[in-house]
Amino acid sequence: MAVVLSTPGLAAAAEAGDGKDTTYYISLGDSLASGYQPDVDKDTDVAYTDQLYAQLKQRTPGLKHIRLGCTAETTESFIGGGKCDYPDAKSQLDAALKAMAQHHGKVAYVTLSVGANDILLNCVSPAGTLDGACLNSRSQTMAKNLAQIAGALRKAGTDNTRFVGSTYHNPFLAAWLQGPAGQQAAKESASLVKSANAGIAQVYKSTGFKVADVAGAFSSDDFTTQVNVPGAGEVPANVAKICQLTWACTKQDPHPNADGHKLIAGTFAAVLAENEAPGRGASPTPTAPATPGTGESPAPSDPATPGEDESETPAPSNSATTPEPGTDTGANTPAPNGDLAETGASSSTPVIAGAGLAVAAVGAAAVYFARRRRTGEQS
After folding, report:
1. Packing angle of the helix pair 258-275, 48-59 (nearest 10 deg)
2. CB 5 within 8 A of CB 164
3. Model confidence over 13-32: pLDDT tens digits?
4. Do 130 and 124 touch, CB atoms closer than 8 A?
5. How many Å separate Cα 364 from the centre of its chain?
6. pTM of the model
7. How many CB atoms lie within 10 A of CB 349?
8. Phi, psi of 292 (to 5 degrees)
9. Full 3-state SS string of the chain
10. In terms of Cα–Cα distance, which of 92, 214, 207 is closest to 143?
11. 33-75 confidence digits (pLDDT tens)
12. Is the pLDDT of residue 302 over 60?
């Protein structure tokens, strides 16, 4: 989905040598933001954050990407740290706030995808199903933490900073391919994930963030429309999209593939384009020390679902199932791709583009789904 973005008020036509015209995009979150891919077992540059940055930079040549996403991040670790190492910062939130202070008035965009791990790392049964009671309990804590995160970020921004957070796709839909029992489990998961996404969206709106409706872009609730999937026959549209856009039906892994990340990037871009339409000003972001969430931000319109991808929907394997808790992919070392953004260094010295801050992202294999690290590996 190609969305043309207008130049934000902060950005200049070109980047000056002294950096006065440089603006920043800060991407935050979990493995969605870091682009973890199970086929290579590491973070990659197919992340929606990288794809979105490429789109934004076409209109804002001086834009630099500060990439802080951390695979396996929860809202708790986002605030308190413990998943990834941020030099001179105790956590991802601390690193983000310091970057925003360092570049105050020049941060054009902040995107955030966090919260799924709070539920999926705790509320998935050994059989791979969601525990509704656990989900309800964890969702309350997640919402409280997310409100703290979003509020702090908004307060650190300016009137020209655009904030967008995302909901999540539903990888449990892949259970549909298992037969009647799996189809029932897929249907039951839909209402639970929808409820969790509603809570995430509500928090974002209450703190002045726009919402990228990733769940909607993945047609997560569409069990009515039937789509032919090679190797599986007629399946609901939401199941077809999970098979097409994630690894859930081929590697039993919930992460979006390159096409999935492209769709997510387009969903964020659509929200930013809508926010920058003629007659619409930037989100009314309070500046410190004002209280975040002052004034009610208009609810974002649902982004249009992009057209069908021209590539053939990959055929799911016959053994497709929802990702199994306790599965470990192997590597769990600080090994992010150093070329994740425009000014990235080599993989042995990863840096955040435009910020000059080294970040060693650990837990690359401890994905946002339910997994255990192998005994003896360092967290």
Report:
1. 40
2. no
3. 333 334 668 999 999 999 99
4. yes
5. 15
6. 0.71
7. 10
8. -65, 145
9. CCCCCCCCCCCCCCCCCCCCCCEEEEEEECHHHHCEECCCCEECCCCHHHHHHHHHHHHCCCEEEEECCCCCCCHHHHHHCCCCEECCECCHHHHHHHHHHHCCCCEEEEEEECCHHHHHCCCECCCCCECHHHHHHHHHHHHHHHHHHHHHHHHHCCCCCEEEEECCCCHHHHHHHHCHHHHHHHHHHHHHHHHHHHHHHHHHHHCCCEEECHHHHCCCCCCCCEEEECCCEEEEHHHHHHHHHECCCCCCCCCECHHHHHHHHHHHHHHHHHHCCCCCCCCCCCCCCCCCCCCCCCCCCCCCCCCCCCCCCCCCCCCCCCCCCCCCCCCCCCCCCCCCCCCCCCCCCCECCCCCCECECCCCCCCCCCCCCCCCCCC
10. 207
11. 999 999 999 999 999 999 999 999 998 889 999 999 999 999 9
12. no
Q: Is the dihedral of CA 27, 30, 33, 35 positive or negative?
A: positive
Read off φ and ψ for residue 326, nearest 5 degrees.
Answer: 95, -10
Q: Rounded to a whole number, what is the distance in angstroms from the first to the last CA of the chain?
A: 37
d(CA 118, CA 134): 10
Two structure tokens written together for 321? 């199932």
